[in-house]
Amino acid sequence: MVFFGDAYGLADSVIVPIQRQRNHERIKEEQVKCDKADGKLDGIIRVSGNEEINLQVTDALFRKIKTLQDYIETSSKVVSNNEKIRQLNYIQEVVVNFRIEWKSKRLNPVFAPLLISNFEKILKANIDSQSMAPNIEEVPYEIGKINAEIFKNNKGYNDSKKIIFLKFCALNPDKILATIRPFVNEPFADSLVVLAGLNNPKQLYDYASSGYSPESKLIHRNTDPLVEVIARISHTPNALFYFPFLDDILKGKQFTDSIKKLVGDGERKIDSVGYFKLLVKTEINYQQRLIAKDTPVAMFGVNGLREMLQKKAIENFITPINELHEQNNLAIRMKAIEPLSAQDIYYVMVMGENDIYTSSYKHSFTRLLQKMGTTPRGDELMMSVNMDFFRKFIKMAANFNQLDVFLKTMPQDKATVLMKAFVANLDKSNNLEDAVDVADSYSSIKDTALLKTILKNVSYNEQRSNIENNTRGKIIYNLLKTIFLSSDSNNVDLTSEIGIPSIYSIDNKYLADDSGRIIQQVFFYGDEDGKTNFAGFMNSFA
Question: What pTM value is reported for the model?
Answer without folding.
Answer: 0.72
